[in-house]
Write a structure and sequence with these properties.
This protein is mainly β and 274 residues long. The chain has one domain: PK beta-barrel domain-like (M1 Pyruvate Kinase, Domain 3), CATH 2.40.33. It is built from 3 helices and 18 strands. A 7-stranded mixed β-barrel has the order 1-13-12-16-15-14-18. Strands 4-3-17 form a 3-stranded antiparallel β-sheet, with no helix packed on it. It has a 3-stranded antiparallel β-sheet with strand order 6-7-8, with no helix packed on it. Strand 7 and strand 8 form a beta hairpin.
Length: 274
Amino acid sequence: MKRIGGNGLKVVSLRRYPVKSMMGEEINACDITEKGVYGDRSYGVIDQETGKLGNAKNPKKWSNMFRHHATYVSPVNLNEKIPPVQITLPTGEIVRSDDEHVNKRLSESFARTVTLHTPSNHNVQFEGYVPKEIEELPDRGTVFTRQSPTETFFDIAMIHLITTNTIDALRKLTPTSRIEARRFRPNIIIDVPELEGFVEQTWVGKTVCIGDEVRLKIIQPTKRCVMTTLAQGDLPNDLNVLKTIVKENDGYFGVYAEIERTGKIHVGDKVIVE
């Protein structure tokens, strides 16, 4: 079996998103469990009118989701209960998940009645919007409904991975756009020296070994959506990001992975693909 790595492949960034679709946090290390990065998407906002999960994939309804920033109030440790999360609202006000007024504050912020939840044993649906401005997309201008995997607030898979090479490739294809990793909300970013292009797509069906413990099975490329075009912090709205991904790479950017072996990973860990 051909192995790629050992001479430079390494983890350069790790990211976790405590609340589904809100801005998250960059971390130095994390535990990988059967359900992905421990503490990732551990909370979600539920629309009380529809019972659906709040999701930036439908900016027609959740236009200010990315203006909410979520971080944990204390370190996240495996075998310990997930700590409370604090959410910085667009106004600058900070509210905690264990605050008795958290649902009232969030409802005011989203201009709809919502409650903050952790995943349960129920299946949760979410909505997405297909931007009408991108002619190459099917069903443009429509809203679709999908279901998260049971007992999670994920869209499809537990881990999203991209390479610095893919980021660099998109920068070259659309030089007028600001292409930064946070547009794509990955959990793991890997640097692959001496290669160019959408490198990780060649890993589908292969296993990515990180550090001494973790093994991830790459299951499919990540089909991108309107979220990549939305403003995040100082990043502006930019439809050209998604237009370019659709035109140049059939709409794919990054890959999804499932967990073959759990363990702890760190920024700087060596990576082998086999």
